[in-house]
Design brief:
Elements: H1 2-5, E1 36-43, E2 50-59, E3 64-69, E4 75-78, E5 82-85, H2 88-106, E6 112-116, H3 118-127, E7 131-135, E8 139-143, E9 148-152, E10 155-159, H4 161-169, H5 176-195, H6 198-201, H7 204-211, E11 215-217, H8 221-230, E12 239-243, E13 246-253, E14 258-265, H9 267-279
Parallel strand pairs: 1-6, 3-12
Antiparallel strand pairs: 1-2, 2-3, 4-5, 6-11, 7-10, 8-9, 13-14
């Protein structure tokens, strides 16, 4: 959630991400102006793994944001481990290893990052007065081990922090993680609309001060304030989001040392959507 990310920050000490062999210098960006790329991760309840992984590309010329979501079960090759799920990159090496893994997948560097814990997400949603959403169906699920209790009724409503978490984490239906990613992307546009409300913008300095300790980022305070000014004119129509098509496959996970269900991206779709993310090149029309 790029705009919500700019409302709060803390600055953990994280080693700089290494340049990957597939990353090109043409992907570099200036902090002061021009395009920029952000890794946005949401953590699990125990804050040991990534529950959500998105890459946001700021298109400065067109004043737009493109977002590509990576399914959490996507397989990646992590040095010293082998093929494992991308969610395990954070568990074994924090945001630094996660940035390396995602940058290798994109073939481009990722200069900046935001880290959301569940308490941070809930607090930010409450600070902006909730986010309007239409819950498309009854959502009910309990996982006491994760401390997850989902109980949502269908229909239009304003989600507070607790219920926003339930909406964003639900994936226990036929769509699984892909349906959850779709809801997360829809939530982004609704959150942007909520943040643009005049009663929120006038309280922006206080919101920033109240929430600054809860979101991890590499950006300095002055950079964050500059970004708040740059994205102020965004509308929901200025944000476009995609995820990678693919299929579920069973394969060996080198970290878990057992066979697990992975998400195998469709190669052609993956290449097209990475180009779209990085350059804005339109996606090919689906075949009839």
């Amino acid at each position: 959630m790029l705009l919500l990310s700019l409302l709060a920050w803390r600055q953990p000490v994280v080693p700089p991400v290494a340049q990957t062999p597939r990353a090109s210098e043409s992907g570099s960006v200036s902090d002061a102006e021009g395009d920029a790329r952000f890794l946005i991760v949401g953590l699990t309840q125990d804050e040991n793994r990534t529950d959500t992984i998105m890459v946001a590309q700021w298109d400065d010329k067109n004043h737009k944001v493109r977002i590509l979501s990576l399914p959490r079960d996507t397989g990646v090759n992590i040095a010293g481990i082998g093929i494992t799920k991308i969610v395990h990159a954070y568990a074994t090496g924090g945001i630094g290893r996660t940035r390396v893994a995602v940058a290798k997948e994109l073939g481009a560097p990722i200069p900046h990052y935001f880290i959301f814990s569940l308490p941070a997400m809930r607090h930010l949603v409450d600070l902006i007065g909730g986010v309007p959403a239409t819950v498309e169906k009854r959502m009910i699920y309990t996982d006491r081990k994760q401390g997850l209790f989902i109980d949502l009724w269908p229909g239009p409503q304003t989600l507070d922090g607790v219920h926003a978490e339930q909406y964003l984490r639900f994936r226990h239906d036929n769509e699984g993680d892909i349906g959850r990613i779709r809801r997360q992307q829809q939530f982004l546009g609704a959150a942007l609309t909520a943040v643009r409300r005049p009663q929120v913008w006038v309280r922006l300095p206080r919101i920033v001060l109240a929430a600054r300790a809860e979101v991890g980022t590499d950006l300095t305070g002055s950079q964050l304030l500059d970004w708040v000014r740059r994205v102020q004119g965004l509308t929901p129509e200025s944000i476009s989001a995609n995820t990678v098509a693919g299929r579920s496959v069973r394969q060996w996970d080198a970290l878990a040392r057992m066979s697990l269900d992975f998400w195998e991206p469709d190669p052609a779709d993956y290449r097209a959507k990475v180009r779209w993310l990085l350059t804005g090149e339109p996606l090919p029309m689906p075949e009839p």
